[in-house]
Every structure is written in C-alpha cells, then in structure tokens.
Amino acid sequence: MSIEKQYPRQQDKHDDLPTLDQVLSRQTLPPVCLYNFYIIMRDRLKMEEVLDFYLDLQHHELLWVKYVKAMHRSGHLSESDLSEGYHSPRVMSRLSHSTTQYPASSSPSSPSPQPPQNLNMPMSTTMPSLGSSITTTTDNLNNTSVPSRKELADSSQKLLLRYLVPSATKEITQLPAELVTALRNELEKPDPRDDPLLFREAKEYLFDYMQLQAYPKFLRLKVWGNITLYQQLGRLVVGLVCLLAALTTSLSLIFLGYPQWGVRFWILLPFWIGILNILIFLTGLDPIWALVFNRSETTTFKFNTIKQPQVKRIIRSRSIWLLTTSIIISVICTIIFCAIPPRKL
C-alpha cells in the first residue's frame, strides 16, 4: 500500500541537497527547514494536514519511547526486552493493557496535570506561531514529566478524532480508504491499541506521499528561488510598468528630436528594472536579495537568512546568471532604441 519511491532517482543531480527525512528530523538550516516546509505545504500546496498528521505521529512515537524508558527504569522491562528496540513485538506484549497503567516514578492517585488541548491544533506544533513552536515536540519530551499509559491512549484517540473520522477538523484524504478503515476499527474498539506500531504503515505512506508530491516542489521553490507567490505577482506588475515607461520614454525622445545616444541612453535604467523584475517573476528568484542581503522570503516581506551551504551556493550562482542576463537584454534593447535616428514631429 506504499507509494513507489521514485524521488531519489529524480534528485541524482543534486545528491548533496538535504533529504526529506533530514528536514522532518530538524537537521537542516533555512531556507530548507521544517518551518519553511510547513509554510509551503500550507500556503502553496494546501495540504498542511498531511504534515500535521505526520508530526503528530512523531510526537506519539516519542511519548511511547519515553514511556518505555520509564517502565524500564521502574523494573517492568528488562534489558533483554529492549534488545530489539522500543517498538518490538516483545515490548508490545509486555506492555499490554493488563500492565500497570503508571510507571513507578508517577503515582496513579496524583498524575501530572495536563493542560487542555484544542482538537483544532496539532499535538506536536502550534501552527499560528510557527517560528517558535515547530520544535515543541522535542522540547516537551525533554522535560522531567513521564507520560502515563492513559496519556498514550488519549494521544491515539486525538489522532483518531482530529484526522481519521469523517468530517474531522483535519481529515486526511490522502490515505487509502482501506488503511483509514483499519485504523478506525482498531482505535474504536472498547480496548483500543495505543502503540506506535499501529500507525507505522500510515506514517510510511504519508512520508512517501510527501516525498513524491510535496518535497520536489518545496525544493524548487526554496533552493532555486527566494520569493513568495505574491512577491512574484508584484514583480510582474512592476516589470510591466517599467517596460511601458521605458518604451514610452524611448519613443518620446525619438519624436522630440533628441539626438542618438547622449540623453537617450538613460532609457537603459527603466529597461533594466523592467526586464529584471520580469525575470524575477519567471524564476521566483530575486538576485539582489540573495547576493546583497543573503535573504529568502518565507511569507510576504518576512525573511530567513540563507544558511544551508548547498542552497546558498545554488542561489548565488543562479543570481549571478539572472543579473547578467537582465543586463545583456537591457543593453541590447537600449542600443536598438538609441540607434534609431531622431524624427521630430
């Protein structure tokens, strides 16, 4: 039920670029970071629920790992139980629902208070404040609190209510119907499962889906460009206005009888501004922002510093090419209009 993994073959030419797994594991730097990936999924691809679900599954897995470690410290699990990993069938069997619901380090009568969570918000991130909250999953799991088995069960039920039931707040339509049905059947039982192994197939499917459908577009927008869609449209307007001004000025100087070259050569400036902005619209790359300020736009007029070395190299080389092209085209247009003999009306 998994999607065929074709993306690595498509990226052979750029093997040094970060992989999707590195982005999701927060091992990359702007502009190819998890923060920007979420923005592209939300604003350009309109499928942020896929990334939300994937991150919440990661959060659930981390809760499970922390719970298993606590059970190991309390003596419920031995070293041999963990020899095959935290998600092995042996661990699942030992930590069945007949097991004590709370680790030894926490008391059933006084569980740690948990703040209420809004089902409209992802468990692992609070999306309205992306910059500060995209890493809350790891931060929350590094504190001293130990999750109970009840918290694990609540976490799996929130995954069901938020993503899997019909008309859910962020219903996942990208998963196959039979997989969603299988998950719902397990989670809606009187004694539902809460181990991460239940969601493994769904997580792998969504990873493959993002790798094929979302990540190549993300790379194209953030590795080969540095502006947003609205910025591109604005540059198109500026470019067309400047080209109209350049053509109007050129013809006016010709028909007012201005001699060749001299004053008429100043039309180079509006020609260059117009052509540059048209090229920025076509490529999604502003060479001035890249070469002078080393900036990449996240949302309109909000910027990241370009820190990923491979991305910085690609964007700078493309910026030099774009600037050179715009200057050459502008000089050609200027020479053509300056060479036309004056004809005073």
UniProtKB/TrEMBL annotation:
Transmembrane segments: 236-259, 265-285, 320-342
Stretches the record annotates as Disordered: 93-149
UniProt KW Heme keyword: no
Matching Pfam families: RGS
Entry superkingdom: Eukaryota
Biased amino acid composition, Polar residues: 125-147
GO biological-process terms attached to the record: intracellular protein localization
Keyword terms, alphabetized: Membrane, Transmembrane, Transmembrane helix
One GO location term (cellular component): plasma membrane
Stored InterPro entries: Cell_Polariz_PKAAnc, RGS, RGS_sf, RGS_subdomain_2
Domain RGS: 147-228
Coiled coil: none
Entry-linked PANTHER family: A-KINASE ANCHOR PROTEIN 10, MITOCHONDRIAL, A-KINASE ANCHOR PROTEINS
Name of this protein: RGS domain-containing protein
Organism (species): Parasitella parasitica
Lineage: Eukaryota, Fungi, Fungi incertae sedis, Mucoromycota, Mucoromycotina
